[in-house]
Amino acid sequence: MVTVPDVIPQADMCTYTACYCEENVWKLCEMVKERCTECELMKCFCVFISNSAKKVPLWHQKASRNPERLVVWDYHVIFMYYDTDTSLVYDLDTELGFPCTLKEYVSACIGDERTLKKQFWRMFRVIPALEYLSTFASDRSHMLNDEKEWLATPPKYPPIKCLGVDNNISEFISMDQSTNHGDVFNLQQFLSRFQL
Q: What are the residue boundaries of the Protein N-terminal glutamine amidohydrolase alpha beta roll domain, all occurrences included (predicted)?
């Protein structure tokens, strides 16, 4: 049985908008910051999952209509809680538990990369929650099509801004380490980072 930290709200208390995972996680980081000490917040991370092709296969996704529940996203974002003996994933878009262990998430949602073409291999940008709260911004323009229509209905609250920046989401989605937001890992490095 997974021991859930008290500082992290249950799924039904979280702000959620379909197809805006980066904002859902930002809002979760914000809620956790209000509920915990700075020491506890240091155990919390935002993780962007993408690659240079922007083709990220993930299984057990609620948005999927196929039997394997597979979706190939351009990117996805999850919240993680990590303590010395606990690695938990909080993903409002998966059919798995909220939370589930990192081991469960990797096994069910990420799978074995050796079965995939290299263009589908996932990379992981790991950002401390406090850093994510203070550096992320999105004007949601990436969710508009060529006719300036929404690809998915945006959240009702105003776009997230930081330090005079209106939009830097592309720097987080990019798996180029030079963007200076957190650290970028391949799958094996990511698992080692969280001692799996």
A: 16-194
